[in-house]
Amino acid sequence: MKRFKETLQARGLKPTYPRLRILEYLGKHEDHPTVEMIYEGLIRQIPTISKTTIYNTLNAFLEKGIIQAITITGTETRYDLRNLPHHHLLCKRCGKIIDIDIHCPYADQRKIDGHQIEERHGYFKGICRECLKKRGKR
Question: Within its chain, how far is the Cα of 95 from the centroid?
Answer without folding.
Answer: 15
